[in-house]
Amino acid sequence: MSLKNINPTTTNAWKELTSHFNDIKNINIKDLDKETNRKENFSLKFDDLLVDYSKNRITKETLNLLVKLAEEVDLKDAIEKQFSGEIINVTEGREVLHTALRSTTDAPILVEGKNIKPQIQTALRKIKSFSNKVISGKWKGYTGKFITDIVNIGIGGSDLGPDMVVESLKYYKNHLTTHFVSNVDGDHVSEAIKNLDPETTLFVIVSKTFTTQETISNSETVKNWFLKSATIFDIPKHFVAVSTNLEAVDNFGIDRNNVFPMWNWVGGRFSLWSAVGLSISLSVGFDHYKGLLAGAEEMDLHFKNEDFDTNIPVILALLSIWYNNFYGAETEAVLPYSQYLKKLPDYLQQAIMESNGKGVDRNGNKVNYQTGTIVWGSTGTNMQHAFMQLVHQGTKLIPADFIGYKESLYGLTAHHKKLMANYYGQIDALAFGKTKEEVHSELKLSGNEDKIGSLLPFKVFEGNRPSNAILFDKLTPHSLGKLIALYEHKIFTQGILWNIYSYDQFGVELGKELANKLLNNQ
Ligand code: G6Q
After folding, report:
1. Catalytic residue among 366, 385, 437, 513, which?
2. 273-to-3, 97, 351, 395, 449 alpha-carbon distances in Å
3. What is the pLDDT of residue 1?
């Protein structure tokens, strides 16, 4: 049985939400914040994670209606279908089972009648043993030297996830240096290899199809570079692949023993939990890699089992729909207050926009409502000195997720205090703004009474700009896994509510076709 097919705008909840929106659209977060227990009533705690969504333009009634919407489109049924391996990626005829990759239970998950759990475990054992060998130095290059550098060659889902996680977990990394090459721009690969030593470099070629123009071009280039000093018999010590296309991998010259599996039931942008994450395991060690998977599994169970009104990914998805479909907000910002997470917005752009950037519903009809939000962002505090001006005083409504950590990793507590003061300061500034009266008395008190006439309107902050505070105790592989899975489930929930297919990506095809045509005509 496939996913249900319900146009959200035809539900009772949508109608009620529309009239509710008309009633409350001018509410102000400042007034809402005065409610008794507002923070407690609009916060969710899940072990080391606290999500405070009290600074949103919502009431209890809004939330009830949004939850009702999720119920009316039968989100529960869709969740069950995803986790149990139904073919919910209908347009590609595939199951969507990235959650199976991190499941530690014995419960079988069947794909074409076969339990996939054993092959997942075998792949994990292979990742473990390979990572251990390379990290310990047991695995040696063709002249007997240890491996010092890893180069991940892949693009899109075969690059953004591993790259983002390796960067985010830099604190936990070992002696290996990891590089990522993705762009077909030859300067990218040239820069990456210019200081590398072929005797001590390991290339991890990640391509589900092993036909992707960028990845194959870059792989051929590094192979030629390698063969300037080594022979084809040395390739097995320096090239491994993650792919489903064994024939193409063979043709490239990679030893079958050095191939890690990929499966069609894992979408590229959700694949860092598979062997696509090999560079992660090499960079931080298998135990940390497992920690990442364990954190994601905890979020999976929360998403699967928790009631919608206390379900973190569901609530964040519903809030996003509230702004996107009722307030007409076009974009959302993701603002991590950790320099380690600087690549998270890029990663989420693919995950969110490639998944939910669809204009046709599950009937194949053009939708008559807004879908996929535009996501963008950068790290705090850097972005406060850059684009935040527009978020505070511009004309657009931009709901924002502020991701923060109670503790820093190196323990410079004075720095962390400042960082978090900025985190909360921004949230409050957006929500509460600064009134005319406040600006007036500020100018007066600072002895600038003469400037009140000319400056006052420019210094006013309207406020009433919504945000969520997503706060973890500490950045660990475990909490990162949880965070990524949170967004994955938010994406899924929104796709279900918008009645679109989130797991195909035909939108990237046309440009590829045209580029190939142009190449062939040259
Ligand atoms: C992700 C997309 C896409 C894909 C790349 C790389 O969901 O499918 O970004 O990951 O095009 O594809 P290959 O892994 O096949 O090279």
Report:
1. 385
2. 24, 11, 14, 40, 60
3. 62
